[in-house]
Amino acid sequence: MGKTSVTSALLDWYDVHAREMPWRVMPADKRAGVRPDPYAVWLSEVMLQQTTVAAVRDYHRKFTGIWPTVADLAAAEDADVMAAWAGLGYYARARNLLKCARAVVADHGGAFPQTYEGLIALPGIGPYTAAAIASIAFDVPATVLDGNVERVMARLYDEHTPLPAAKPVLMSYAEQHTSHSRPGDYAQAVMDLGATICTPKSPACGICPVRPNCDAQTAGTQLELPRKTPKKPKPTRYGTAYIARRADGAWLLETRPDKGLLGGMLGWPTTDWSDTPDPAPPMDATWDTLNEPARHTFTHFHLILSVQTAKVPQNTAPNRGAFIPEADFTPSALPTVMQKAYNLAAATLRQV
DNA sequence: GATGCGTGGAG
DNA sequence: TCTCCAAGCAT
């Protein structure tokens, strides 16, 4: 079936309906010769991995404010970057962000590679992100295949093979539409369409610029597509967080190991979050258990986190973590589950 | 190919 | 309240 008009229809639609984003150069400005900042594009694409535009905006603004160039970011302290990323989730992205920035400075003279192959070799840059940066920042005709494009292609071609098995065929469809005249605008256009028109639950087919090309719209199957293999139910795990405050107001915190859940992030000492009984607290103290646990859902399990608090003497020696002075402690530097525990304990521990 | 890895918003 | 899910990557 010929769908040669899809590309031009999407570009025409994008010229009128492109959404404003801090890292995006709008089509009219691109025509006037304005080029995207590859650093800003890379930062946005990493932040947007499995994350909504609404959630990314403020973080992107914060990062470019503190670290205006990739060289600035490469020179940053690890702890400062992790603290700035706190709350955005998927913290391996922040660790790889730093690795990538340092590789760009050390191995590429501070300039991002301009090819798909050069980009995908960098930490935290996979097939999607390499194609996105190559097309958006450098107008290389690379094909982006993210969740939006998968949905758009599955519907355009009424493809019923479930994901992720359908990825190769959806990629072949996407490649057929990739623009060679305006690669960056096209990549953003097809993703904008998926985000605003061809949405998962209530697609606005009535105003869709490629409705005449859409096999699912013809068949009436758009709400069933794309099909996905069913997910496993999430188990519930239990644990305990220990929030201790010293006589001078300092808080007992520890940096978590780089690997695993919340890797590299600052947090309260906790038990592990399995089914095993609680090991010993991080030090001898009189621990009080709060009435309400912190509840939090991660990607693959629910957590019910009991919170224990203690006020401890100045000479207390912890066997885990370190006391952070009150003046240096900012709850916003903690991942969300740790902020929840803090909020529950704050009233109890406000007075030293 | 399957699994681990956050979070907040929408329905 | 609960499920789904959003511009994925590393292993």
Automatic annotation (TrEMBL):
EC number in record: 3.2.2.31
Protein's UniProt keywords contain Iron: yes
Domain HhH-GPD: 47-196
SMART domains: ENDO3c
Known catalytic reactions: Hydrolyzes free adenine bases from 7,8-dihydro-8-oxoguanine:adenine mismatched double-stranded DNA, leaving an apurinic site
Top-level taxon of the source organism: Bacteria
Enzyme class: hydrolase
Listed Gene3D superfamilies: Helix-hairpin-Helix base-excision DNA repair enzymes (C-terminal), Hypothetical protein, domain 2, Nucleoside Triphosphate Pyrophosphohydrolase
Any one Gene Ontology BP term: mismatch repair
PROSITE patterns: ENDONUCLEASE_III_1 (PS00764), ENDONUCLEASE_III_2 (PS01155)
Family in the record: Belongs to the Nth/MutY family.
Protein name in the entry: Adenine DNA glycosylase
Lineage, highest ranks first: Bacteria, Pseudomonadati, Pseudomonadota, Alphaproteobacteria, Rhodobacterales
